[in-house]
Amino acid sequence: MTAFTYRDGVLHADSVPLPAVADAVGTPFYCYSATQLEANYRAFAGAFADQDAAVCYALKANSNLAVIKTLARLGAGADVVSVGEMRRALAAGIPADKIVFSGVGKTPQEMRAALETGIFQLNVESAPELEALSDVASSLGVTAPIALRVNPDVDARTHAKIATGKKENKFGIDIAIAREVYAKAAGLPGIKPVAVAVHIGSQLTDLAPFRAAFERVAELVIALRQDGHDITRVDLGGGLGIVYRGDEDLPDLSDYAGLVKGITGNLGCHVTLEPGRALVGNAGVLVSKVIYVKTGVERRFLIIDAAMNDLIRPSLYEAYHTILSVNQPAPGSDLVPMDVVGPVCESGDTFAVQRPLPPLQDGDLIAVLAAGAYGAVMSSSYNTRPLVPEVLISGKEFAVVRPRPTIAEMLAADHIPSWLK
Ligand code: LLP
Structure pTM? Predict the structure, then answer.
C-alpha cells in the first residue's frame, strides 16, 4: 500500500492532488500522509502484538508535532536524543513513562530535565556519562532507570555514515567490557541498571546483522543476571530499512518480529523498539518545481527549486530517492537520462545522476519519494533559502503543519551589534 498514487493522471497524497497543495503553499514543500503514517504504525505495532513490547518512535526521523501526534494517538512511545525532542514528545501527548532518552552525549542539564519529567529509561553510552548521571540523580534524590547501550561489534551492512554497531564507531560500550561497567553502575548512587540497549545502524535491509546483535544482547542479559543484576528489559533500537529504489528485498515485519521473539522470548524481558524511518519514511514526499531544463555538453540537467539544504540525503549518503513526475507520463513516453539538481552552488547539490525521466519542462512538478524520514529534520537554510513548509494530508483534508518562514523572519533572527549600528 502507498498513499501516493496517480489518480486521473495526477499524483495524489491520499485524496488530495499534489498540484492543489502546491497552489496553496508554493514549492518546494514536504507532504506527509496521515493514512500512511497510521498504516505504518499499525503494521509495526501489530507485528509485535503478541510480545511484551513498546514501540518508541525515534523522533529524529521526523519531529513535526503533527506527525508525532498522529503516532502518539495510536499509542506510540518515543525515543529522543535531546531535551528538545523530549519536549516535542511531551507536547504531542506522549507520557514521560513511554519516553526513552538515547544519545552519545547527554548533558547534565538534559539528564536533569529527563529525570524531573520521570522518563522511562536513559540509555547510557559511556562510563563518564554514567558518573555524570549518578551525580545528577543523587542531587535530585531520585534513581535513574538505565540501560547501557552496548556496542556489539556487528557490521550492519549499511552506508558507513549510518552504521553504528562496530567497535570503531563512537557508540555504546564495548560489549566485551559491559559486565564490568554494569558492576560499576550498580555500585553508583542514583543508578539502577534495568536494561540492555543496542542499535547497530539505520536502513538495514537484511535481518542477519540484527540477529547477531540481538543474540549478543540476550547472552549479556543472562550473564548480567548471573552477576546479580535485575535486568527486566531490552531495548533493541531501530534500523529497519524501507524501499527507496523499488528493487530492495526487505525483510517482512513479521520476520523481524519473529526474530526478536525467537531470541528474547525466553528472557521474560519487556522489549523496546525504536523505529524511525520504518514509520515515517514512505509517508512523506518532497514536491518541487522544475525551474529550467538545461542541456549541457554531455548531460541534461533538470534544475529544480528544491536543493541539498531541503533534503540532504542524496548529497550526504549518496542516497537514492525515486523521483516521479506529478503529472503522470503518457504510457510509452520516452525516458531521457537527466541529472536532477538544485540551485545551490555546489556540485553535491544533486538529487539524482543520469536518472531516466519522462519529458519534463519548466513549471512541471516532481515528487521525491520516501522523504518522510530524515528529510525536513535535516534541512537547513543554507543560501538563505527558507525552510520548506510541511503539510499533513488526511484523506481529503490538508493542513500546513509548519509554514514556510518569510525572508523577513529569517533576517529578523540575526542581530546587529550596537557598534555596527
Ligand atoms: N535508535 C537510535 C539509538 C538511533 O540512533 C536511531 C537512528 C534510531 C533508533 C532510528 O533508526 P531508524 O529506525 O530510523 O533507522 N540521517 C540518516 C539516518 C540516521 C539514523 C540515526 N540513528 C539517514 O538519513 O539515513
Answer: 0.97
